[in-house]
Amino acid sequence: MKGLIYIASIVTLVQSARVRIIQGTIASDHEFPYQVSLQWNFNNGSRPKHFCSGSILNPNWILTAAHCEGGFTRDGWIEVVAGVKNIAIEDSAEQRRNVSRFVQHERYNPMTLQNDIAVLRLSKALHLNDRIKTITLATGDSVIVDDTISKFAGWGSISETWDDVFPDELRKIDIALRSLEDCQKVRPTVDATREICAGGYRNVSGCTADSGGPLTVQIDDSTVQIGVFSYGEKPCKARLPIMFTRVAYYNEWIQRKIEKKIGKLLRWSV
C-alpha cells in the first residue's frame, strides 16, 4: 500500500515532482549546507527541474532515496546542485554536477519502498566551503529517543491538495520522532529496524519532491543525519506520519558502496 501512495504521485513527477514540506518556513542562508537539489535536465534548453533532494557524504558522493533514480525522458539526465537555496535563481556560488553512477540498494523494492536508499557518484568532485559541507551519518551507536525534535528541509510541494505547488526557496520544519507503538497504530507495516517514523500531527509534514532529503538531529555539537525521506501520504495533509529510511541501519552499506565505487554506469554520464 505504501508503494501505491508514492507511485500515484510519481506518475505526475516531472510534470509535478516527489514527497513536500507542509507548514514549513523559509530556511536561512547556508542553514543546510549539506543538502542538495536533484534536478532533471530535459536536454531541450529548458531549465532543469527539481524532483528530489540528497545530502553530501563527501565531495564525490551524495546520499538519497532509491526511488529518486530519475529517467523521466529518454534524452535527459540527473544534475546535482549544491550550495543553493533558491532553485529558480542561478547563483554564482552554486555548484552543478552531473551524476556518473546511481547505486541503489540491491534489495530495493519499488512497490513497498523497502530498502529505499541509494548513493550517487558525481562526475566531478564538489569544492567544499562555508555553503557546501558534508553531513555526519548516524551509526548503530547513535542514541536517538522517541519524541526527539528533528529537522527536515526540502523544495517539495506546499499544497495540501492533489494539485502540487512548488516553492523556489528551501523550506524547513521541526518534526518530532514517533515511537514504534505510536506509529504502528496508523502504519502497521512499519519496520522499526529499517525505518524512522516522524510527524503526522500539528499540520507538519513532508510531501512530493522532498524525497531523498536528510532528516537530522543534534548530537552533542554535531548535526547528524538519521534518516532519508522515503514516503508519506497524498494529498499531504499531515494526518499520517511520514517515513524515513533509517541511516544507522544502512551505514555500513553506504561505506561499502563508496569504497568500492560500484554501481550502474549511467548512459548520460560524463
From TrEMBL:
Instruction: Output one GO MF annotation.
Output: serine-type endopeptidase activity
Key word Chloroplast present: no
- Pfam families (alphabetical): Trypsin (PF00089)
Report the superkingdom from the record: Eukaryota
Q: What biological process terms from GO does the record include?
A: proteolysis
Which of UniProt's keywords are assigned here?
A: Disulfide bond
- Listed CDD domains: Tryp_SPc (cd00190)
Family note: Belongs to the peptidase S1 family. CLIP subfamily.
Its name, as the record gives it, is Uncharacterized protein
| Organism of this sequence | Anopheles darlingi (Mosquito)
